[in-house]
Design brief:
Number of helices: 3
CATH topology: Arc Repressor Mutant, subunit A
Order of helices and strands: HHHEE
Radius of gyration: 13 Å
Strand content: 15-25%
Shape: globular
Helix content: 55-70%
Number of strands: 2
Distance between the termini: 39 Å
CATH class: Mainly Alpha
Number of domains: 1
Strand order of the largest sheet: 1-2
Structural class: alpha+beta
CATH superfamily: Winged helix-like DNA-binding domain superfamily/Winged helix DNA-binding domain
């Protein structure tokens, strides 16, 4: 029971961070990981988990342009 509760709290924390990252990305065309760290004021592990959650939900994509990795929000069909 305690492990399950802790996992739920962690998932809630990740989802809250992912909403913050998505809101930040929605104001920019694209951002690097370092830019998102600064804009969101998150530790790299927390940002990585938030981005993974957003990519799993098909809300954000990761792509490479001129050997730099960027993240950008995906436009979902209405």
């Amino acid at each position: 029971m305690k492990g399950e509760q802790k996992m739920n709290l962690n998932l809630n924390f990740i989802k809250r961070n992912s909403r913050q990252v998505y809101n930040t990305l929605s104001h920019y065309t694209r951002c690097t990981f370092a830019q998102l760290e600064q804009l969101c004021h998150m530790a790299s592990t927390d940002l990585c988990l938030a981005l993974a959650q957003l990519m799993r939900e098909n809300k954000v994509e990761q792509y490479t342009d001129s050997q730099t990795v960027y993240y950008r929000p995906l436009l979902l069909p209405a």
